[in-house]
Amino acid sequence: MWLLKALSVWRPIAEYPIHVTVNVDVRVYWLAALLAAASGILPGLLTARQIWNTNPMQAMRGNAQMVLRRFTVRDLLLGAQVAVCSLLVTCALVGLRGMERSLRANFGFEPQHVTLAEMEMKMGEYSDATAFPLQRRMIEEAEKIPGVTAVGTVDEPPLDGGGSSTPFYRAGTTDFRNSNAAGVAKYFTVSPGYLEAARTRLLAGRGFAWSDDAQHPHVALINQTMARILFGNESAVGQHFTEPGPTVYTVVGVVEDGKYGTLTENPRPATYWPLAQNNENDITLVVRSRRPSAETAQALSAMIAKIDPNLPVTIESWPEQMQLVLFPARVGTVALGVLGLLAAMLTATGIFGMASYAVAKRLRELGIRVALGAQRRQVMHAAIGRTVLLLGIGSVAGLALGVLGSRVLASIVYEATAYDPVVLGGAIAAMITIGALAALGPARRAVLADPAALLREE
Question: Which segments within 258-327 are labelled E, that is strand?
Fold first, then answer.
């Protein structure tokens, strides 16, 4: 109940009112109690059933077939438990490594050391005509802030959980039905300086200039994927495409591909339009600085307040703004980590029980082996060799399932893969550690068995 209450008040992203509301009624607790009781009683009934069906004469003669059948069921259960644990541990490590990589991945921009100032100019009573001069002035003033290296604007930053798309057509198209479209592109309205502030690489041509305004022909930047769709292997710079309106754009530059909607999306077309030709009322100031984000945010806030103290503005670092798009991956990774921890606890219990049972059943035999001069290695092999074998088989099976499961996990966590030496090594080390800790007590008991004391027992 305490954990559920903590989950209900948890707010994973401060900027968004997201709450994981959990309402538990009596039926849930009754079901949990019944499942707990069943998990304790059913295994005991299965064992009792084996005893009831045992032939006393065969048991006294030590029928090997009966013993083999009884141990096969136990072995399968433990092997399955180990395999599930290995699967969950592998998936948890895959998720953690994927999360680590996603923070250092190539998004088509570099969010580190960038501060965003999102301005609601409509709420400040600015029209499209009156907003543009103020936006340009803010860029010029932000460039004067000490430590700032580049400044630009964008209508909606990539990976902000939103964005807009438009179909695009090859030059000369007059029928703008969707079936005639060459594709659908994400589009962004940006100012000169945005590519430098976002560190989006310009691969060919030029970026935007303030002279790309309404008095000049429409120009656009496109990404590699869109250039390949429209023009194949030809140079895209200087060529044209059309979007419904109709508006004909001249391609002045090609930029690298990026992530625009989600981290796990496949490469998709994207186009950029100049702010001076497509006035946007609400824009986000993108400021790259060598100073800490908190200092840059404070300087930006003072600068905007000096220009218009009544303008609504939200200032945050770009990594903070990306929390929403990273949220599913974080939740999935945490959930897998918790399940992996619980599975490891259950598996350690199972291995300990199996090894303890094996040592208890064969303790007198082990004592005789010690008395006859058996080495410690031989005694440990006889005592827990079967348990170690099951641990190895179950771990290998779990790792194989984890490799298959990582393909599903890759749709949630960016760059999640089980073919990572760190993941495979970590999973193997985790299973070895779990097995060693669980079998340590029974193995020690077997090695330290006192032959004289055991043989004196009845």
Answer: 270-274, 283-289, 313-317
